[in-house]
Every structure is written in C-alpha cells, then in structure tokens.
Amino acid sequence: MERAGGTTTVMPTNDGRRQTVLWVIAVLLAVIATTLVVGGRQPVGIQPVFGDSPMVGARGIFAFTGQLDKTSYGLFMMDVDNRTVWCYQYLPSTRKMKLVAARSFDFDRYLKAYNVESPTEDEVRSMLEDQRRIKERMERGGAEGADDEALGIMDPDLPTGGGRKE
Questions:
Q1: Is a pLDDT exceeding 70 seen at residue 65?
Q2: Among 18, 127, 146, 158, which residue has the fewest nearby CB atoms (within 10 Å)?
Q3: For the chain, what percent of residues have pLDDT higher than 70?
Q4: Is the peptide bond before 119 cis (omega within 30 degrees of 0)?
C-alpha cells in the first residue's frame, strides 16, 4: 500500500508456517534443555553395560588445541593410559595435518628438575632456610644484619622499606 508521500507500509501477515517453525524450535530447545538437566542419569533399575561403567580418575585420550608459533596452530593429544603425548600441525595451504612431535612421558615423571629457570627447587629451599634463620634471630632479639639485606631475604612479617616489626 502506497501513501501520498511515496512511502510504502508493509503490513505483517499471519503466516501459519512461520508459527509452526517457531513452535518446532521451541519444542526442540525444551528437549535439549531437558537432556542437559537430566544429564547422564540412568533410569532406576537399568544397569550399565560392561564398557559404560563410570571411570574414576582421568583415563583415555585427551585432545586440545594450541599455538605452535606465530602463525601456526596444532592439535595436541595425550594418551593417559599409555603415557604418550603427540602433536599435529595444521597446514592451511594443503588443508592437511602433519605429525610434528611425539614422545612418551613414562620416565619424565621421575625427574625432579630438568631445564628449569631460576629459582630452582634447591635455591627456593635455601631462601626459605635463610628466611627461617633470620626470623629466629629476630625473635631472640638479634638485629637484622647487613649480610641479610645483601642476600635480599627479608622477614615477611616486617613492613617493606626496611622497617622493623614492633
């Protein structure tokens, strides 16, 4: 319908097909919501099949994505049962994935420290022992020595700025 000013007004029509589609979508959303709420619960009296028993702890294969470098991404996979990890790189030019790394971490878990930055576990232990020694000396009434400041170890109960706890 056209008006005097040249504008056209569109009147909405009651299309029965559109209402049917909206009702179907609403019903499907309700089914999905019910499924999510109910979750994996089984009806009373039904026992799980042999392979469907819930597992305790993390088992199986886990997959996650991550960035390999500035311009490439990869798919990392870990088999917890066999203690292996491997990585595929996605190559967008060929639209394929390439295996770039794989290894077993069977014996890695026995290492205490390998290729770690400072402070290492031994350095942290030494700092804590120095801190404990300083605190004990302060509790006995001793003064904070210059060598303690040179070590960079201060009592955590002391305020910053070198003041003393009172």
A1: yes
A2: 146
A3: 63
A4: yes
- CA atoms of 44 and 38, how far apart (whole Å): 13
Task: Based on the fold, state whether residues 100 and 137 are members of the same structural domain.
Answer: no
Q: Which tokens in the block code for residue 52?
A: 């469907």
Burial class (CB in 10 A: 0-12, 13-18, 19+), 77: middle
Token duo for residue 43: 């009806």
Q: What are phi and psi of 23, to 5 degrees?
A: -65, -40
The one-character DSSP state at 107 is T
In a domain, 137, yes or no: yes
User: Do 93 and 130 belong to one domain?
Assistant: no
Domain residues for 103? Answer: 58-110
pLDDT at 86 over 90: yes
76 belongs to a structural domain: yes
What band does 165 get if pLDDT is binned at 50, 70 and 90?
very low
- 34 within domain boundaries: no
Give the predicted TM-score (pTM) of the model: 0.40
Exposure on the CB side of residue 83, measured as CA atoms within 13 A = 7
Question: What does the block give as tokens for 69?
Answer: 């470098």
Total number of domains constituting the chain: 2
Angle CA(152)–CA(158)–CA(162) in degrees, nearest 5?
A: 55
Would 39 be classed as within a structural domain? no
